[in-house]
Amino acid sequence: VSGLGKGITISSIGRLLKSAGVRVTAIKIDPYLNSDAGTMSPFEHGETFVLDDGGETDLDLGNYERFLDLNLTRDHNITTGKIYASVIAKERRGDYLGKTVQVVPHVTDEIQAWIERVALIPTDGKDGPPDVCLIELGGTVGDIESSVFLEAIRQFQFNCAKNEFCLVHVSLVPCLGSVGEQKTKPTQHGIKELRGLGLSPDFLVCRSATELLASTREKLGIFCQVPASHVISVHDVSNIYHVPLILHDQNIDQLLFAKLDIFTPKHQQNSHKIPNNFPICDLTKWRAM
């Protein structure tokens, strides 16, 4: 669901990784046809966040910069308008050598190439590429406008090793006031739609008014084919800066280290056991703030 908190979620995940010494960067994908957010009504899309290089972008990039202490560029915001403009420019130059230009493979290849190029740009003031690139795909699973990006990500996962790609799905778990029960059907149908597109999430981040019940976690784990420990509860809080603490309390940092083999010695990389040598995220300053 749009506006659910995907940007805060990946900003918080990035904060945990960075607190453990991992260098991170972030990319936001907006499926709209606009080239950027500069000409969009703030009543419809919220305020525009202006980057140091003058790029007019979605507010989520402001969250990335605040949470992660990064200086992003306009290329860290991908839109359908930018992708199609690049593909059409290449077609006009003859880069495709007279081939029929199609959504697959030309548009999807352009999306993947853009991600691979921008992911290597250092944004934390240090030399060399980051260790992890966090990518947020805006919109809702099943939307026509986001389908080309989902297809590009489906293809992209096969260009990575299993320990280099992790998919986190953010979903709503509503609680109907009439019965007071946490409903899992919206998430189950969202995962069904996602799996039909060739993507299987490694983690579920569930947004809800109150903390997920243990029974709700188990039910989602069974029907969505993820371990119950990978069903993460992110309930409403008074301040968005509490979200990294909520995620840390549910051990998501250690689970991500195991999934991505971060800090894992080479001889342990194919083991299903979580090694004990993962660093602990130091959130002392964050808690004090």
Q: How do the helices and strands line up, and which of them pair or pack?
A:
Blueprint: H1 6-19, E1 24-30, H2 42-45, E2 49-50, E3 56-57, H3 59-68, E4 77-79, H4 80-93, H5 103-119, E5 132-137, H6 147-157, E6 168-172, E7 175-176, E8 181-182, H7 185-196, E9 203-208, H8 214-224, E10 231-235, H9 243-249, H10 252-260, H11 284-288
Parallel strand pairs: 1-4, 1-5, 6-9, 9-10
Antiparallel strand pairs: 2-3, 7-8
Helix pairs in contact: 1-3, 1-9, 4-5, 5-6
Describe the structure.
The protein contains 11 helices and 10 strands. With 289 residues, the protein is of the alpha/beta class. α5 (103-119) crosses α6. The protein has a 3-stranded parallel sheet with strand order 4-1-5, sandwiched between helices. A 3-stranded parallel sheet has the order 6-9-10, with helices on both faces. Strands 2-3 form a two-stranded antiparallel ribbon. It is globular, with a radius of gyration of 19 Å. The model is unreliable at 265-274 (pLDDT under 50). The longest helix has 17 residues, at 103-119. Helix content is 39%, strand content 14%. It has helices at residues 6-19, 42-45, 59-68, 80-93, 103-119, 147-157, 185-196, 214-224, 243-249, 252-260, 284-288; strands at 24-30, 49-50, 56-57, 77-79, 132-137, 168-172, 175-176, 181-182, 203-208, 231-235. β2 and β3 form a beta hairpin.
